[in-house]
Design goal:
Blueprint (H helix, E strand, L loop, with lengths): L5 H16 L36 E7 L2 H8 L5 E9 L8 H4 L7 E8 L6 H12 L7 E2 L2 E2 L5 E3 L4 H16 L10 E2 L5 E3 L7 H4 L4 H17 L17
Parallel strand pairs: 6-7
Antiparallel strand pairs: 1-3, 1-6, 2-3, 2-8, 4-5
Helix pairs in contact: 2-7, 4-5, 4-7
Length: 243
């Protein structure tokens, strides 16, 4: 089968998702996805702005293209008890995959990360996010997926997260670590809406899916290689209660 172009890949993904929802997922019947050139994964510097987070569990919302891979990465991060695929940036009325796929809802595919700041702080979550989960210089695109729903964004839940997010993006840009400016937007005050059940734990459930193998499994390998001290071997699955 002919390799899909970047634009075609974005259009075919809803068909793959529908097949997954119907239990018809088959690597034989699906396009052989290829990885697209991205900024290389690297262990980025620690944040100069350290998050001040009293209390126990906190949550963060990040968007970095297809939520399968972002969820899959953070399900393996030590200190993260839950990572849920969903939508952020739009309203509740159109927080569903069919609507979000149009690119006109304001939503981005996003992941809500529940973490213990005694183990991993918000600034450390961001360090992993920018290091391995996405190409932060891509505008309205990640890998084979194009459109505003695949933009990279941070959705701070309070003033402290907004402070830390803004400072870290500025720090990375000032360090000139990339060939282009960071395109990740900071969008405070957005609500999060969980995605449909068939999206949850997708990477763990379908490790040999061509899209996962080409675009998302390398992110998990980068996490394991660059942050071994932050990596859990077993994922914290949505479909399984926290230990």
């Amino acid at each position: 089968m002919t390799q899909p172009t970047q634009r075609t890949a974005g259009r075919l993904r809803p068909l793959i998702l529908a097949a997954a929802g119907l239990g018809l997922l088959s690597a034989v019947a699906l396009p052989q996805w290829r990885a697209f050139a991205e900024e290389p994964a690297r262990r980025l510097p620690e944040a100069a702005a350290v998050a001040q987070e009293p209390g126990h569990l906190r949550s963060a919302i990040v968007a970095g293209g297809c939520f399968w891979g972002v969820q899959g990465v953070f399900q393996h991060v030590r200190g993260v008890s839950r990572a849920v695929s969903g939508y952020a940036g739009g309203s509740q009325t159109d927080a569903d995959y069919a609507s979000v796929s149009s690119g006109g809802t304001g939503h981005a595919e996003a992941v809500e990360i529940t973490y213990d700041p005694a183990v991993i702080r918000y600034d450390e979550v961001l360090r992993i996010f920018f290091s391995v989960a996405l190409d932060p210089t891509a505008v309205n695109r990640q890998g084979p997926d194009t459109g505003r729903q695949y933009r990279s964004a941070l959705f701070p839940r309070d003033a402290e997260q907004a402070r830390v997010a803004g400072a870290y993006v500025a720090q990375l840009d000032a360090a000139r670590l990339y060939g282009r400016p960071i395109a990740t937007t900071i969008e405070p005050g957005a609500a999060f809406y969980p995605a449909e059940a068939y999206h949850q734990d997708f990477m763990a459930a379908h490790p040999n899916h061509p899209y996962i193998a080409a675009n998302d499994a390398p992110k998990l390998r980068d996490l394991q290689r660059l942050f071994p001290e932050r990596t859990n071997a077993a994922p914290a699955l949505v479909g399984r209660p926290p230990a």
